[in-house]
Amino acid sequence: MYVDAMKEEFEHIELFGNPALFTNNRVAPDTVPENWFVYDLRGGGNDPGRPVALEMKVIVNHAGSILTPEEIPFHKGENYRSLKNRLNFLGEGLTLVDFCQRYSLSIPIKPAADPKLPHTYNWYVITNCGSPKEQIQQDMTMEEAIRVYQDTDEKEKRLGVTKDEIATVDLVRLADHEQWFFEDYQVMDCFKDDPVILQAVQTLHQALGEENPVQGMTMGGM
Known about the structure:
This is Large polyvalent protein associated domain-containing protein. The chain is α+β, with helices and mostly antiparallel strands. The chain has helices at 96-102, 110-113, 142-151, 189-192, 195-208; strands at residues 2-3, 10-15, 18-23, 26-27, 37-43, 51-55, 62-68, 80-82, 87-94, 121-127, 135-140, 157-163, 167-175, 178-181. A hairpin with a 3-residue loop joins β12 and β13 (167-175). It starts with a strand and ends in a 14-residue tail after the last helix.
């Protein structure tokens, strides 16, 4: 079974003294972000499920896959590396994004910025963000999200979008009877040149009361 590197929940591990991610499954190569590396683990002959060596590709006795932001060197003339008790499981599940946040790494979202690739957009509305009453409605179209946003009577609410299940940005917020249109999308690579997002921003301004958005300003009032 192949899994998507950007969606899989991995096991947090330490390998050869460095943090990395482990999954029992194979990682689809076309989902591995740029400047990240994926390796296979080979299981022992008597116990195929127990990893004993790291290789670039394992066909028989595959015992898991490793995802890491650093290339792992092999000894000269060898195409494998013995683990020798250098694989330690740290007892928690992490996604690739979680791992990046944990170790202050740049989150790899370049594929989401590529206009030549197909993208998904899931819209959401959050009410009472950060409070015990916080609620989120998600996996909506933009039109559905606008209706939910307009219909809710909560004093604090915001509307935004998640692209490719990776990158998220809030676009508009209402609090204390004042509305702001956020401009964070203008400085995020995966959003700033996306025609779908740019058109959506125009639609939001028209639907929610600002027909002529001005670039570089934070807008308020309805």
